[in-house]
Automatic annotation (TrEMBL):
The chain crosses the membrane at residues 60-85. Keywords: Coiled coil, Membrane, Transmembrane, Transmembrane helix. It comes from the Bacteria. Residues 14-41 form a coiled coil. It comes from Rippkaea orientalis (strain PCC 8801 / RF-1) (Cyanothece sp. (strain PCC 8801)). The lineage of its organism: Bacteria, Bacillati, Cyanobacteriota, Cyanophyceae, Oscillatoriophycideae. The keyword Transmembrane helix applies. This is Uncharacterized protein.
């Protein structure tokens, strides 16, 4: 094999390697884009879940506070009702 043939073979191999590297780079960029999209979707799901949990917690707190505040009033109403019914 002559020196020219060796250089041609080396250049062919370098071009093939560059082509493969370009393909790998393209694949990596595509994978990174898909990962980025998936992370965005999971972020949206997480924030929606946090929002729903906040609403549920607020509802529970309001219900508990209402029971605490209204139980004496309801007890007094029950006493008044019982008093009027017994007469």
């Amino acid at each position: 094999m002559t020196e020219q043939e060796q250089l041609t073979r080396i250049l062919t191999l370098v071009e093939l390697t560059n082509s493969r590297l370009d393909k790998l780079d393209s694949d990596i960029k595509e994978t990174n884009k898909r990962i980025e999209d998936e992370v965005k979707r999971w972020d949206e799901r997480f924030f929606q879940l946090v929002k729903e949990q906040g609403q549920t917690a607020r509802t529970i707190i309001i219900a508990a506070a209402s029971v605490v505040v209204l139980s004496p009033v309801l007890g007094a109403i029950a006493d008044v009702f019982t008093h009027f019914v017994s007469k």
